[in-house]
């Protein structure tokens, strides 16, 4: 599951960084200056199940100080924590902060595909898709949600992204 979440966040970060102006870092799969980039500098979270439900944990790398992920475990919506896990957080890109929900696959999170869900518009929170369409729960009244046995996370890991900045829980610092 960690590989699905980490891979998804990395892809989203790469996609988002292409729209951010500034100097680009070279990307090399082997050799070069990134060969031993994590030697004592970066320690990824090995078990996301150990994350807090009340405070964000920041995942950052010293080579990219203006880019990180803030994540915490969520205990709402799915109703099957023994089968799948849920996380919420922000992908921080300089002064911009993209909010996401992430739900593990109920089947095989380590091998199932990762889906990035964004509602159209632009300008529509992905919460609409989460709570009204394909998410692991449905809103049934003002205070409650019900389990959705037909959710896409039955067979896939799903990111729900609030984009662009200013939509849903995504925001920018200093009026950016």
Provide structural commentary:
The chain is of the alpha+beta class and about 180 residues long. The chain has two helices and nine strands; from the N terminus they run αβββββαββββ. It has a single domain, classed as Rossmann fold. It has helices spanning about 1-15, 125-130; strands spanning about 55-60, 65-75, 85-95, 95-105, 115, 135-140, 145, 155-160, 170. Strand 1 (about 55-60) and strand 2 (about 65-75) form a beta hairpin.
Looking at CATH, which topology would you report?
Rossmann fold
Tell how many strands the DSSP assignment holds.
9
User: Which outline best applies?
Assistant: globular
Q: Any idea what the radius of gyration is?
A: 17 Å
* Sequence stretches where pLDDT stays below 50 over 5 or more residues: 14-22
Q: Distance between termini? A: 34 Å
What is the residue-averaged pLDDT? 78
The secondary-structure element order is HEEEEEHEEEE
Signal peptide: 1-22
Pfam family, one: Peptidase_S10
GO cellular component, one term: fungal-type vacuole
Protein name: carboxypeptidase C
């Amino acid at each position: 599951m960690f590989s699905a979440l980490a891979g998804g966040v990395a892809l989203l970060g790469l996609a988002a960084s292409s729209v951010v102006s500034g100097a680009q870092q070279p990307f090399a799969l082997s050799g070069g200056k990134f060969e031993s980039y994590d030697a004592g500098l970066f320690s990824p979270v090995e078990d996301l199940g150990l994350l807090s439900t009340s405070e964000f944990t920041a995942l950052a790398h010293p080579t990219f100080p203006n880019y990180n992920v803030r994540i915490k475990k969520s205990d709402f919506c799915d109703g099957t924590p023994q089968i799948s896990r849920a996380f919420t957080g922000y992908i921080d890109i300089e002064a911009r902060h993209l909010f996401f929900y992430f739900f593990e696959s109920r089947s095989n999170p380590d091998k199932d595909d990762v889906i990035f869900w964004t509602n159209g518009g632009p300008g529509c929170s992905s919460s609409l898709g989460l709570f009204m369409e394909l998410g692991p729960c449905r809103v049934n009244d003002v205070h409650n949600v019900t389990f959705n046995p037909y959710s896409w996370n039955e067979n896939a890991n799903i990111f729900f992204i609030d984009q662009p900045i200013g939509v849903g829980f995504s925001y920018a610092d200093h009026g950016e």
